Queue: 2 jobs
Job 1
Amino acid sequence: MLLDAGPGTAPPRSLLILGGTSEIALATARRLIARRTRRVWLAGRPSAALDAAADELRGLGAQVGTVGFDALNCASHRAVLGEVFAEGEGPVDMVLLAFGVLGDQARDESDPAAAVRIAQTNYTGAVSAGLLCASALQEQRHGSLVILSSVAGERARRSDFIYGSSKAGLDAFAQGLGDALHGTGARVMVVRPGFVRTAATAERREEPLATTPEAVATAIEAGLRRGAATVWVPGSLRVVMSALRHLPRTVFRRLPV
Ligand SMILES: NC(=O)c1ccc[n+]([C@@H]2O[C@H](COP(=O)([O-])OP(=O)(O)OC[C@H]3O[C@@H](n4cnc5c(N)ncnc54)[C@H](OP(=O)(O)O)[C@@H]3O)[C@@H](O)[C@H]2O)c1
């Protein structure tokens, strides 16, 4: 389901992924490379998985570079991201902000330091990287900043309110940033997937309307084409969440969510 259609954009020629090993991001990269994307930067914490992801995308025909990026190290973001944007081979058409941690609600409730790391990764890190990328896209007068939010941010649940609250903050930030960029040639698209079957969620009880990284990738590509400001995956979640958001708390609290 796509909302807020405006002037759409063709699939990007160049793509910067923040969270370069994210399963959802890599499914998106594969899909976009099959369309038109030729240049990819994978920004992430250095690891064998990051190198393997770069090799895989190179095998699909893209020119791929890796960039050391830690969401928790905000002081480094300006230099790291500045380097990508300054590389001088044309504009960065799309930034996909995909880093994030789910955490372990039960454990993190009794470990505030761990809970803070979730908030700092998902929210604070995204505020820092998001503002820097938005400013660079604005300078180019062109480009999309696609931000992976979550339905978990729509209404706090007993079962994952630490993660959910970090995504609520991220989502509000992304919406406001989208308004700030309106009319500049740069834009923000907020993506709100429900439960996505990935390694990160493999140990969890699957939720209704569960989806796949490939389905999120398809929705991202369609959202870009349509110029959507908000994309739900699957689209039916928009209606479901609209109903859940308005349930009285006494009722919501008793739901098995
Ligand atoms: N899976 C779902 O059900 C679901 C649903 C809705 C929204 N989302 C959101 O979608 C995004 C991608 O999720 P995914 O399912 O693709 O999960 P994933 O495969 O676990 O990817 C998470 C990414 O975040 C990166 N990351 C974590 N901490 C970082 C840090 N401090 N600095 C830099 N990168 C860091 C990881 O890098 P490392 O390789 O270094 O760990 C990895 O690239 C996340 O924001 C997630 O919250 C996921």
Job 2
Amino acid sequence: MIRRRPLFLLVLPLLVLICVSFSGYAGFFDSLELSLEKDIGGDSYESIMAEMTVVQLEPEEEERLQSIFNRLVNACSRKDELEFSLTVVEEDSVNAFALPAGYIFVHTGLLNYVQNDGELAGVLAHEIAHVDRKHGMDAIKRQVGMGLILKLVLDKNKSKETMAKIGAFAINMAQLGYSREAEFEADRYGVIFMEKAGFRKEDILGFWQRMVEETGDQDVPKYLQLFSTHPPTSERIERIKAM
Ligand SMILES: [Zn+2]
């Protein structure tokens, strides 16, 4: 009589092997995708630097801003895989935006509008959250399709033309605002990072409230365009309060 081994004993090592190699490939793909994100972020950063006027703050103010920013970056989950940077640009509108891979910009209009460090931290945390949750890369994937992303990830000599198109799209998304869901998610994670860094969520609530009082939910004037394109500010306030 031939004793047959239970089937699972034969299949098990095979399954383990498949899982291990798959997770190896997944990790490999993730690292290639990360390098694509850095390429896209770096290219669009260069375009913004060529288009906008960078402002050099007084050393004391610069140090204060950087220290708030660093505290928030340290609270996010991608702090080790990315080099976050903060650049102040000359622009009157109250706005800030984040490019893929951690390039964050604030307008001088925002620096003048905030009333305390907590409000500023709240806005910066929201932008860091867009990078942390990969909202830029997700939007790019939806826009260009996974097929092209795969091709770009695997292609060492990426087409400059394609990369420029993707970079322009990334900048547009960053400046105009992401999807409704992404904005709510950035609000939520922004508050988490703020609190982890020692700021209070009441400060960002105060900021939003002031904006609603000044502008209402509709017809937001251009200089107060911050995050105005997507979810109504009052709904964002309610959601942050409920956290
Ligand atoms: Zn946003």
